[in-house]
Amino acid sequence: IPAGPPIKMKVYVHYESAASERKDPTATQAMQVTDASKTLGSIIEDFVELYNKKHLNTPEFESLNPHGLCARNDGQVVVPAETPVAKAFKNGDDVWLVSLEEGFRENNAAVSDNLEDKNRIEASRIRAGDKSYYYWAQKPTHEAPAPLEAPKQIRKREAKAEEKIHFKTISSYSFEDDGGLVKVYISMPKIGDHDPAKIESEFETRTCSIRVMDYNGFNHRLQVPKLSEEIIPEECTVRARKDTLIVRLSKKKKDHHWYELHKTKGIGEE
């Protein structure tokens, strides 16, 4: 595919089944897009390559197959692999990766709507089960698709209720090192009037997750898989003040200055 004009945008890619558990810091990655022609299929392949490498030494880990996955947006609409990222998403948006079976089962109608360039016969074959070929194929032919290995699961279990919730990633915030505390400021107009019961937080020694439910029609989340340094979870707080959500992180090493909130940077970031 010829290179498109240069652009500068970033999307947050989540391997949904692992990211929802908030226990796998590699399940969410910030991906830089600098080419307007870069497709979602390419994003999926880049993510899977890195994800598999990071889990090479993980016991019982089954490598992901990019062709066993599809991408969808916050509205759970499956977006075809050949779609340029810049046309389907905006800077800072979330891209959710799920198995083809799950994506097509939950949103079959939306899949058909997104394949306007394919005829009705092809759409019906997608619904019938030939999903991998028709999701990933750049140029459909009359040849029978080569069989692909079914996507493997790391483990089988019933999805938890919280794993079915979709979030918009909070990517805009500021923070300051204030001696023994690190303060994170998130601008959210009228958050002070929001139901306190819908503002949730979870702190661990090296991670934090702040969730604001049902705010302006969406669920929002700031999730830091690996903080710059260790914190004291029981001393951390979240407060809503008029138009700002303030997160106070209690540093374990009070004399260590934090220059960044995240310990590691995302893919492609310098």
Question: Could you characterize the architecture of this molecule?
Answer:
The protein is built from 7 helices and 13 strands. It is α+β, with helices and mostly antiparallel strands.
Secondary structure topology:
Layout lengths: L5 E10 H4 L8 E8 L4 H15 L14 E4 L5 E2 L5 H4 L5 E6 H7 L1 H6 L6 H9 L2 H6 L31 E2 L4 E5 L2 E7 L11 E5 L4 E8 L2 E7 L12 E5 L2 E7 L20
Parallel strand pairs: 1-5, 6-11
Antiparallel strand pairs: 1-2, 3-4, 3-5, 7-8, 8-13, 9-10, 10-11, 12-13
Q: How many helices does DSSP assign? A: 7
Give the overall shape, derived from the CA principal axes.
globular
* Category by helix and strand content: alpha+beta
* Number of beta strands: 13
Radius of gyration: 20 Å
The description of the largest β-sheet is: 5 strands, mixed
Please tag this protein with its features.
270 residues; alpha+beta; 13 strands; globular; disordered C terminus
Short description:
The protein is α+β, with helices and mostly antiparallel strands.
